[in-house]
């Protein structure tokens, strides 16, 4: 490996890990970044791959390309399966051991079904490119099935979608699904009126966007209902199967597709850490983001439980992860210069969520607003945070084209067999 000095191992190539690596570009360290994927994924736009607005390469950049000019960095493709804090090693793919002087754990989160793992087969989540492509295939195949249905009941079911969870991902998915049905696919089929498709957004809490201010939640709900989304708050899902969902109230919603946006859990690697954890599995860290009793181990991003001065938790969003990654890297550099460590201070950049075409809700600098202005801000912020120039250029072009034409260019089914097209029914002439 290039470089000299202390060996820093970063686990995870998401926002926190990648920005930590970049911050150490000029530090006298050897750096190894390990990820089970070869790409950095811009997760806030993953739902646009799932709804055919963007292609997978538009929201992902190869990690090797991003760090190609960083001479002290080595990238390893593999999965860290365990951490040995005493020996200061990480186990790669269950075999190879990689030693470290400093460890930055930025492994992120995984989809959580709250103990109901059997739902995974019927309600895919959205955490990776594979997930997004699978969801896109299932969405498009629901319309293909409806085109061949001879029974009105079957057709109505196949044109009904249920999104479970009304956080930013769920809200954005639900709005995009209605737009696909009402406008994008309106002239593509002959036997169905795609605009008749129903989209249900089911949330166990009392409002959509529960992490946002209440006024923004109300505005988002109004816009979703204007688009035609049926919003059901205060409704907990009791069961999910291949034909729909059953709510705790006893109501059953027959659906051609159920999508899961209701919860995440932390990486299983946290089991190897000595630190205290919150109820949702995040690790409580010291004010410099290091693991208590282990100053050489930093836990950052979605894995870290960090309180703001007002007592609230730092939200598990890209700005917080980026700031944590940079701070951990700065603490390592300060150690090497024998400078004292400083507490992490989160700088709140605001909240953004898009709700369909040309509409978003935003909170910036304590000011809340919505509509087209918020949507323009959402576009600017998301393009700005994309890693590469190519990705920024392509995404801007795709969004401009979609906005002008109502078309989504990535409407390609790549794995039709996985979506079980029903062929036993007769086809109306």
Spell out the key features of this protein.
429 residues, alpha/beta, FAD/NAD(P)-binding domain, six-stranded mixed beta sheet, four-stranded parallel beta sheet
How is this fold's topology laid out?
Layout: E1 6-11, H1 15-23, E2 29-35, E3 39-41, H2 46-50, E4 60-62, H3 63-66, E5 73-77, E6 80-84, E7 89-92, E8 96-99, E9 102-105, E10 109-111, H4 129-148, H5 152-158, E11 160-164, H6 168-184, E12 198-203, H7 214-227, E13 229-233, E14 237-241, E15 244-247, E16 252-254, E17 257-260, E18 264-266, E19 283-284, E20 290-291, E21 294-299, E22 304-305, H8 318-336, E23 351-354, E24 360-364, E25 367-371, H9 372-385, H10 389-405
Parallel strand pairs: 1-2, 1-9, 2-5, 9-21, 11-12, 11-17, 12-13, 19-22
Antiparallel strand pairs: 3-4, 6-7, 7-8, 10-18, 14-15, 15-16, 20-21, 23-24, 24-25
The gist of it:
The protein is α/β, with parallel strands linked by helices and 429 residues long. It contains 10 helices and 25 strands.
CATH structural class of the largest domain: Alpha Beta
| Structural class assignment | alpha/beta
Strand portion, in percent?
15-25%
Looking at the structure, the CATH topology of the largest domain is FAD/NAD(P)-binding domain
Shape, please? Answer: globular
Tell me the count of domains.
2
CATH architecture of the largest domain: 3-Layer(bba) Sandwich
Q: What's the helical proportion of residues?
A: 25-40%
Question: Please, could you describe this protein's structure?
Answer:
With 429 residues, this protein is of the alpha/beta class. The chain folds into two domains: 6-36 and 78-111 and 265-336, FAD/NAD(P)-binding domain (3-Layer(bba) Sandwich); 117-262 and 351-415, FAD/NAD(P)-binding domain (3-Layer(bba) Sandwich), CATH 3.50.50. The chain is built from ten helices and 25 strands. The protein has helices at residues 15-23, 46-50, 63-66, 129-148, 152-158, 168-184, 214-227, 318-336, 372-385, 389-405; strands at residues 6-11, 29-35, 39-41, 60-62, 73-77, 80-84, 89-92, 96-99, 102-105, 109-111, 160-164, 198-203, 229-233, 237-241, 244-247, 252-254, 257-260, 264-266, 283-284, 290-291, 294-299, 304-305, 351-354, 360-364, 367-371. The strands form eight sheets. Strands 5-2-1-9-21-20 form a six-stranded mixed sheet, with helices on one face. β6 (80-84) and β7 form a beta hairpin. Residues 421-429 have low confidence and may be disordered.
């Amino acid at each position: 490996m290039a470089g000299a000095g202390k060996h820093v191992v970063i686990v995870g190539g998401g926002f926190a890990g990648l920005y930590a690596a970049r911050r150490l570009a000029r530090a006298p360290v050897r750096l190894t970044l390990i990820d089970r994927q070869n790409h950095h994924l811009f997760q806030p736009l993953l739902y646009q791959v799932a709804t055919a607005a963007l292609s997978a390469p538009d929201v992902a950049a190869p990690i090797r390309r991003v760090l190609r000019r960083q001479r002290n960095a080595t990238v390893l493709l593999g999965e860290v399966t365990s951490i040995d804090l005493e020996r200061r090693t990480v186990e790669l793919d269950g075999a190879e051991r990689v030693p470290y002087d400093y460890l930055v754990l930025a492994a992120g989160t995984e989809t959580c079904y709250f103990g109901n793992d059997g739902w995974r087969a019927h309600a895919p989540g959205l955490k990776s490119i594979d997930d997004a492509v699978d969801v896109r295939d299932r969405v498009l195949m629901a319309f293909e099935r409806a085109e061949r249905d001879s029974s009105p009941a079957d057709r109505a079911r196949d044109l009904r979608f249920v999104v479970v969870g009304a956080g930013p991902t769920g809200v954005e998915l639900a709005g995009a699904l209605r737009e696909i049905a009402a406008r994008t696919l309106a002239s593509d089929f002959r036997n169905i009126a795609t605009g008749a498709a129903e989209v249900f957004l089911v949330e166990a809490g009392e409002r959509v966007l529960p992490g946002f201010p209440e006024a923004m939640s109300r505005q988002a709900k109004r816009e979703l209902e204007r688009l035609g989304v049926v919003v059901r708050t205060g409704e907990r899902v009791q069961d999910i199967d291949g034909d729909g969902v059953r709510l705790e109230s006893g109501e059953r919603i027959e659906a051609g597709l159920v999508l899961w946006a209701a919860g995440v859990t932390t990486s299983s690697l946290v089991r190897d850490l000595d630190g205290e954890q919150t109820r949702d599995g995040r690790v409580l860290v010291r004010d410099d983001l290091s693991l208590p009793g282990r100053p050489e181990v930093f836990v950052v991003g979605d894995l870290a439980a960090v309180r703001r001065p007002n007592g609230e938790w730092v939200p598990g969003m890209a700005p917080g992860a980026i700031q944590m990654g940079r701070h951990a890297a700065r603490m390592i550099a300060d150690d090497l210069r024998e400078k004292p460590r400083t507490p992490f201070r989160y700088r709140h950049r605001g909240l953004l969520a898009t709700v369909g075409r040309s509409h978003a809700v935003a909170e910036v600098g304590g000011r809340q607003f919505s509509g087209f202005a918020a949507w323009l801000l959402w576009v600017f912020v998301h393009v700005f945070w994309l890693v590469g120039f190519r990705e920024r250029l392509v995404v801007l072009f795709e969004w401009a084209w979609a906005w002008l034409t109502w078309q989504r260019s990535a409407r390609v089914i790549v794995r039709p067999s996985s979506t079980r097209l029903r062929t036993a029914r007769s086809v109306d002439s």
